[in-house]
Amino acid sequence: MAVEERDPHSGFLTTGHEWSGIKELNTPVPRAVYFFLIATFVFSLFYWLLMPAWPTGVSYTKGLLGADDRKNIARSLEQAEQARAWSKKIETADFAAIQADPALMTIVRQSGRTLFGDNCAVCHGTDAKGSKGFPDLTAASTLWGGTPEALMETIRVGINSGHGESRTAQMLAFGRDGMIPRADVENVTAFVQSLSAAPGTFDAAKVEAGKAVYAANCAACHGDEGRGNAELGAPDLTDKAWTYGGDTQSIFNSIWHGRQGQMPAWENRLSPVDRKILALYLADLRKPRP
């Protein structure tokens, strides 16, 4: 086969190669390919001149523009730190001063909502109202106190968390462990429910019998009037905020089987400033809105 053979349809010469009757044409490279190759080379040349590019052993060519990503990142971090100057104010100011500063409290509500959503909402809900087994953090009464100082400490050490300074609390299993008979559990259940219900809602005889059982077994933690003890983490039984449910069966189960809640310690997970913001945010949630 002659190398100079020309394809009759396209007019291009063939290369002399043929496969199964198909001949290879010696077509020229499209001009666009040359154009882009040249453009790429010119761009590369200018880029090498303008930007850091070539290693020189111990350093590298800096480029005519003097671009430096490390300096750019350092500048961005410095700008971000300046934008977060408020964090220093929150870190150093006391709780009362922060709560009295509308600008800082606006930041607390914004940042606190994000921190709460990222770390706490999975248990306590996005509205912080909790669910069965997880307390309502907007309730009037709060275990270990609802002041920002008390809340920050609870966040730091957790509850039954294994932290060396953890808050510790446990509701005894009065029925399961045979501490009081079933009848007494039923009576004290009625009495506890009566503390937050309208008068006359429960059997008067059961309530009266339960009052004596309560005084002998429960008042030491929950107080003579059932208003709880923040130092012990014993909840207020006179309000309608129930962690495990306020119906008859739920209260009976709590007294019979006992309870031991758990909250992780956040000391090694959140910075002191973040814990302070969270405490202020939660304390703010408990305030009635005008």
From TrEMBL:
InterPro entries: CcoP_N, CcoP_N_sf, Cyt_c-like_dom, Cyt_c-like_dom_sf, Cyt_C_IC, Cyt_c_oxidase_cbb3_su3, Cytochrome_c_Oxidase_Subunit
Coiled-coil features, chain-numbered ranges: none
Entry superkingdom: Bacteria
Cofactor: heme c
Cytochrome c domain span: 107-196, 205-286
UniProt entry keywords in alphabetical sequence: Cell inner membrane, Cell membrane, Electron transport, Heme, Hydrogen ion transport, Ion transport, Iron, Membrane, Metal-binding, Oxidoreductase, Repeat, Respiratory chain, Transmembrane, Transmembrane helix, Transport
Keyword Electron transport belongs to the record: yes
Pfam families associated with the record: Cytochrom_C, Cytochrome_CBB3, FixP_N
Free-text comment on the cofactor: Binds 2 heme C groups per subunit.
Oligomer and partners: Component of the cbb3-type cytochrome c oxidase at least composed of FixN, FixO, FixQ and FixP.
Name of encoding gene: ccoP
Main localization of the protein described in the UniProt heading: membrane
Compartment annotation: Cell inner membrane
Transmembrane intervals: 32-50
Family: Belongs to the CcoP / FixP family.
Gene3D superfamilies linked: 6.10.280.130, Cytochrome c-like domain (1.10.760.10)
Organism: Bosea rubneri
Function: C-type cytochrome. Part of the cbb3-type cytochrome c oxidase complex. FixP subunit is required for transferring electrons from donor cytochrome c via its heme groups to FixO subunit. From there, electrons are shuttled to the catalytic binuclear center of FixN subunit where oxygen reduction takes place. The complex also functions as a proton pump.
Protein name: Cbb3-type cytochrome c oxidase subunit
Pathway: Energy metabolism; oxidative phosphorylation
